[in-house]
Amino acid sequence: MGMHLAIDMGSESGRAIVGYLDGGVLRTDPIYRFRTQFTRVHGRDYRNLYRFNDDIQHALSLYAEKYGPRLDSLSVCSWGGDFSVLNRDGNLNHLPVSYRTVNTVERTQPLIEAAFGERALYERNGNQRMPSDPLRMLLSMKLDDDPSLDDPRGMLFVADAMHYMLGAEACCERSMPTFGRLYDFRRDAWDAEVFERFGLPAGLCTRVVGPGTCIGQVDPAIVRAAGLEGPVRIVTSCTHDTVCALTAVPDNGRNWGFISCGTWALMGIETDAPVINDIAYENNFNNSSAPFGKNMFKRNMTGTWIIEQCKSQWGRYSYEEIVNLAEGAGENDLSIDINGRDFYGPEDMLGAITAAIRRDFGVDVDRNDVPAIAGIVYRSMVLEYRRYLDALLKAADRRIDRIYMMGGGSRNRLLAQYAANACGYPVYTGLYEGSGVGNLLLQCYACGELKDKESMRRVSANTFPQSVYEPKDVEAWNRRYAVFAERVIRTNLW
Q1: Torsions phi, psi of 38, nearest 5?
Q2: 63/194 same-domain check
Q3: Residues 310-349: tens digit of each pLDDT
Q4: Which residues on neighbouring strands pair with residue 209, listed in sequence order?
Q5: pLDDT tens digit sequence for 294-317
Q6: Is 187 found in the same domain as 111?
Q7: Could you tell me the residue range of the domain that residue 26 belongs to?
Q8: Residue 12: what pLDDT?
Q9: Statement to judge: residues 70 and 175 lie in one domain
Q10: Which terminus has fewer CB within 10 Å in the chain: N or C?
């Protein structure tokens, strides 16, 4: 029986989850949780990788105290987008600047249009345009004459950087490079022409490896300090957390979609190849490499980010209390465009919400009316799901008859029921830690305990019984969506 440790890092918090197979079931034990939120320095928000590294080492010590000195493997997965650059000596040049800190669109768009044009660039990488995606962030660094781009040794996304700091080689697992508008799906390699036309150094192109690869061992000094007896293999699950979650979907059929809902909500399907066509481009859909030669075709949307910011401003409610209050608020048609510019990174989220409702509906909502504000946000989230679901299926020429909802947001029974109502499909929940579970299953695969994707999904189905939310009040939600489409939807920031 192999013992594995998944480090699942979301945009708000990280989790260390122990996992091992037991008779066709995956036993999991979350042993530690730590903050991954921003560190603010001189008006900019950074991700403190050094603190995260300390937290992971602490998790190793907690593992040793509870399970003893043997650990077979460790793997990290994280949110997409943020990255750091290695200098010529192999040291981190800087902490990753949070993608929410700066909007790079205005200053980088002229460069993109001059070098390729958005449509031609999409043909190469099939990636969604974001306000601060990795390509835009690199171009912004170039415009600022950032010394990090002087003779770099490579770029590392957050999970890749954590592997490297623990002792692995400098490399990127494929799911992250294919997410960042820098990768050529046709050649399965960094897009050399993109780097050349934008004047970005080729030294940024770290070696790319696939999921299930052993990329080194945890530093023996770290192993000893934690009370472990090595070696502890560092293996790649999928460094992009949503691809891990996709791998853990408890269904070996084909006619399903997924919504992975954390700080971000990602809605999509698994396909055999990237989907790059007019519908995909017009709706800003995204492709990412997935294990076993598959592709994740999806739309990024705002997830629980807005509620997280509201909760911080209210200061005295748990997430469960917020859901309970929203359930008792009654139904109405008020909604906001959660992907709009107003909600990407405002200083005052409650003020942004109340201003949008006043503008679009002529209604004043008290910023401290928790039931009303929470209800508006939850309705708006699922109306955004509906906005893109039909187009996504049409672009891929697919049909579905069910949706699997995963991630922390899937614990929200109100959100799950709303999603079923708005989208018109049964919504299945129960795989709440989808990214961590997929991480552990891919570690089991890398260590030879599971042989293929089908066996991994059977284990997931055996382990996580599903609750089903059937669509209700369909006519009312059809009307609600019509109001949303007429009054609220605008040209989004991304």
Answers
A1: -70, 155
A2: yes
A3: 999 999 999 999 999 999 887 899 999 999 888 988 999 9
A4: 173
A5: 999 999 999 999 999 999 999 999
A6: yes
A7: 4-235
A8: 83
A9: yes
A10: N
Residues 409 and 267 in one domain: yes
Taking Cα atoms as reference points, which of 287, 305, 205 lies closest to residue 243?
Answer: 287
Among candidate residues 398, 415, 376, 377, the one with its CA nearest the CA of residue 285? 398
Which pLDDT tens digit goes with each residue over 89-139?
A: 999 988 888 766 666 778 899 999 999 999 999 999 999 888 778 999 999
Cα separation, 52 vs 320, in Å, equals: 27
Q: Closest Cα to residue 441, out of 449, 430, 433? A: 449
Q: What's the average model confidence in pLDDT over 407-415? A: 93
272-283: pLDDT as tens digits: 999 999 999 999
> Within a domain: residue 294?
yes
Residue 451 lies in a domain: no
**Of 235, 269, 287, which one is at a domain's C-terminal end?**
235
Residues 200 and 330 in one domain: no
Identify whether residues 175 and 280 lie together within a single domain.
no
- CA nearest to 211, candidates 446, 447, 457, 460: 446
* Domain end among 210, 235, 260: 235
Alpha helices in 202-267 (DSSP H): 220-226, 241-247
CATH number at residue 291: 3.30.420.40
Residues of 285-296 as b/e, b for ≥16 C-beta within 10 angstroms? Answer: bbbbbbbeebbb
pLDDT at position 135 is 94
3-class state of residue 334 by DSSP: coil
Structure tokens at 225: 């300090």
Q: Note whether 156 and 280 are same-domain residues.
A: no
For the segment 164-190, the average pLDDT, to the nearest whole number, is 94
For the chain, the domain total comes to 2
Q: Does the residue 19 lie in any domain?
A: yes
The pLDDT value given to residue 195: 97
Cα-based torsion angle of the residue sequence 242, 248, 251, 257 in order, rounded to the nearest 10 degrees: -10
Closest to 3 measured CA to CA, from 250, 338, 228: 228
Instruction: Give the closest residue to 205 by CA, choosing from 213, 194, 216, 217.
Output: 194
Tokens of 161: 């950087």
- The mean pLDDT value for 356-367 works out to 96
pLDDT tens-digit series, residues 218-239: 999 999 999 999 899 999 999 9
Same domain (yes/no): 201, 333: no
Q: Do residues 205 and 83 make contact, with C-beta atoms less than 8 angstroms apart?
A: no
- Smallest Cα–Cα separation from 380: which of 283, 494, 477? 477
Q: Is residue 243 part of a domain?
A: no
